[in-house]
Amino acid sequence: MSKKNPPKNTNEAEYYKINTKAIDRLVNAEKITPPNDKKLKDPAKQYRSDFLDRIPAPVKALFLKFWFNGAVCYFIFWGLGLNISSTLDMIFVLAVALGIITDIFLNNIIRFIETIPGENEKWLMFPKKRFWTFFANILYAFVVLFCVIQTYEFIAIFYVEPILFGLFYMGFDLLFVGMKNLFFTIIEDAKNKVNKQ
Fold first, then answer.
1. I want to staple 147 with a disulfide (CB 3.0 to 4.6 A). Which of 39, 133, 172, 179 is the partner?
2. Which burial class, exposed, middle or buried, applies to 72 when counting CB atoms under 10 A from its CB (0-12, 13-18, 19+)?
3. Using CA atoms, how far apart are residues 76 and 26, in angstroms rounded to an integer?
4. Which of 96, 94, 131, 124 is nearest to 108 (CA)?
5. Digit-coded pLDDT (tens) for 147-160
6. Are 30 and 83 in contact (CB under 8 A)?
């Protein structure tokens, strides 16, 4: 390799002088922040509507919980009501369908609509998606459905319709989710008090 020599008409110190303007431009280039565009920060944001981002997260989560549970009542309870004559069989099918729909559709949609990661976890009984949550959601649906059936029997309503069913199911679901969140908050506060001492 040949070594490049400085031109003869300039002195050696001037030839090897560092171009500080170029270095300053490179250093300052990292300090420039990109434009404040939400779509640049979250690539999935380009597939979402800005209208839905203006609706508060609790309203979206509660509406989805109500609507999906009412839809399952409509399609399963009303749709299969003539074909399944046994009440226990209908309760079993309805609970399994509620658990599957909750795990496969409802929880994933609630996770997808969050604008901040983890924002909607407080509305889900099982916030993290794992293999065992599929079966846990089915068992949880049996518990919530049992409470809904007891409510129908207590207030002596013999006609099940999707709107009231969706409201009752959502109400008991929120009650149990709130109890779970309160339990974990109490445990975490107790741990923090022990660590401070």
1. 172
2. buried
3. 63
4. 124
5. 999 999 898 877 88
6. no
